[in-house]
Amino acid sequence: MPPVRLVASDLDGTLLGPDHELSPRTAAALRAAHDAGIVVAAATGRSHVDARSRLGTADSVRWLVCSNGAVLYDREAGTVVDRHDMDASTVPAAVDAIRAGFPAVRFAWESAGGFGCEDGFLAIAPSRADGRGEVMDRFGPPYPDGVTKLMVAHPDLRRDALLAALRPLLVDGLVASASSVPFVDIAAPGIDKAFGVARLCRRLGIDRTEVAAIGDHINDVALLRWAGRSVAMGDAHPEALAAAQAVTQTCEEDGAARWLEALLADRSRDGSTGAHTLG
Questions:
Q1: What's the pLDDT tens digit per position in 70-104?
Q2: Which end of the chain has fewer CB within 10 Å, C or N?
Q3: In 131-237, where do the E strands start and end?
Q4: What sign for the dihedral angle of Cα 55, 2, 193, 178?
Q5: Sequence-distant (≥ 6) Cβ neighbours of residue 17 within 8 angstroms
Q6: pTM for this prediction
Q7: Helix, strand or coil for residue 275?
Q8: How open is the CA angle 127-131-136, to the nearest 5 degrees?
Q9: What confidence tier does 269 reach under pLDDT thresholds 50, 70, 90?
Q10: Distance between CA 212 and CA 259 in Å, rounded?
Q11: Is 246 exposed, middle or buried (0-12, 13-18, 19+ CB in 10 A)?
């Protein structure tokens, strides 16, 4: 099996614990992987602003594949180096189609200008504004330029149920995904975490067989299936568990750190990154 040159990991429920912070053990494992020459990238549904904040001083994670693959951010350079927005005509069509099917939905969005949401969205997901961005009564024309991601919340439907309800309403090949948050993310056609990590790998000259992916939810499934090696957290969503080749412990048990430690122990023992057991 080819050596691991890049580890792409989800944040919430994977690298980040229930407090949405890196544990000391996880931070140390990321540093050890970086020092061993492995590129460590976060692959998250969060915006690059949120992800950068959550990682804090963990400079071992240089690359952020954000907004479920739509944005690539270089922490070292402090800049977005790649982004894939929705077509300008698709945004109003998507909003109209979703409202027609479910009038009670509430929207939030990420764009080149930042975060915005409806008042009603905050009633369902109050933590998402984080004191920043635009808040309005109703999302509608004029729509912002460069919309990267729509977020859709419903007062009664959550996660899997909302995802199943919205998928038939998607227009123009848009991609919807769910995670541990109560709303559903919608991105441009073809955009998912596998797309984003693949773009990063092309930039770095790394083959997919040299990538290890770690995740815990539906929005990680495409990446888990794409990567040469894939690991699900112990409390992962059933779809993530089915997509992964291996399972580690939960994030509360530092499962991602344990897997990285085992990977590095094998490298040290036999000079390769061949198959290894989980610690």
A1: 999 999 999 999 999 999 999 999 999 999 999 99
A2: N
A3: 134-136, 147-153, 175-178, 184-187, 211-215, 229-232
A4: negative
A5: 23, 26, 251, 252
A6: 0.94
A7: coil
A8: 90
A9: confident
A10: 11
A11: middle
CA 177-182-252 angle, 5° bins = 95
Contacts of 52 (CB under 8 A, 6+ apart): 64, 73, 75
61, 18, 75, 12: which is closest to 260 by C-alpha?
A: 61
Domain with CATH 3.30.1240.10 in the chain: 90-187
First to last CA, the chain: 20
Cα separation, 6 vs 46, whole angstroms: 20
What is the side-by-side strand order in the sheet with 246-247? 79-83, 71-74, 61-66, 39-43, 6-9, 211-215, 229-232, 246-247
Which residue's entry shows tokens 């495409």?
A: 222
CATH for the stretch 90-187? 3.30.1240.10
What letter represents residue 179's amino acid?
Answer: S
Q: Which residues pair with 79 in a beta bridge?
A: 74
The type of residue at 211 is V
Torsion of CA 132, 133, 136, 141, to 10 degrees: -170
CATH of domain 6-83+191-270: 3.40.50.1000
Where are the domain boundaries for CATH 3.40.50.1000 in the chain? Answer: 6-83+191-270
Give residue-wise pLDDT tens across range 200-242. Answer: 999 999 999 999 999 999 999 999 999 999 999 999 999 999 9
pLDDT of residue 258: 98
